[in-house]
Amino acid sequence: MTNVTKFDAKTFPWSTAEIEEVRDRLLDLFCLGAYREGDFLLSSGQRSSYYINGKQVTLHPQGALAVGRVLLALLEPDTVAVAGLTLGADPIVTATSVVGAYEGKSISALIVRKEAKGHGTQAYIEGLTLPEGSRVVVLEDVVTTGQSAMKAVERLRDAGYQVDEVISLVDRQQGGAEFYQQQGLKFRAVYTIEDLQKRWKQLQA
């Protein structure tokens, strides 16, 4: 894997550049830091000739800022919170919420557990308790079949929130979009796997 340090992320004005330019630079971070080729077993149980470790970008200092800016720009004005299934979505929802605060927008961050908390309130959802019917958008780093984010959708709906959209940083285009459509959910992705692979090849030249 090409080291992300090949791309000097520190010199780019991540907090002030136009959003389309931030989106382009974020793609470079994904290609240099998160994308690998080989033989991999995915969480879905499928085997793949490539792997995307999104946390190499979402936990990168400039990457987190870029992720927050790009995703915040995609949210509808009536969005009250962003949420996602732990662990992959944790840095994403946090970054989006924090960037929102810097831009004068109040977007709460909710973390959805895979299993109920074993003590205290035994809750599935961590974060502020929001009014019933609050519009929550589920965020994901990489979507394959769509099953992981769907768990978050179901938990949030059970808690009384309005959830009708999933946004992913990367769509592997292996059935996730079609699955969400069948579930009546709107789905958007910042990048497709084709975007990553095309740019990755350019960066290897």
UniProtKB/TrEMBL annotation:
It comes from the Bacteria. Its cofactor is Mg(2+). The keyword Transferase applies. Pathway: Pyrimidine metabolism; UMP biosynthesis via de novo pathway; UMP from orotate: step 1/2. InterPro entries: OPRT, Or_phspho_trans_dom, PRTase-like, PRTase_dom. Keywords: Glycosyltransferase, Magnesium, Pyrimidine biosynthesis, Transferase. Residues 120-175 form the Phosphoribosyltransferase domain. Its EC number is 2.4.2.10. It is an enzyme of class 2 (transferase). The keyword Glycosyltransferase applies. 5-phospho-alpha-D-ribose 1-diphosphate binds at residues 113-114, 117, 119, 140-148. PANTHER family: OROTATE PHOSPHORIBOSYLTRANSFERASE, URIDINE 5'-MONOPHOSPHATE SYNTHASE. Homodimer. This is Orotate phosphoribosyltransferase. It comes from Leptolyngbya boryana NIES-2135.
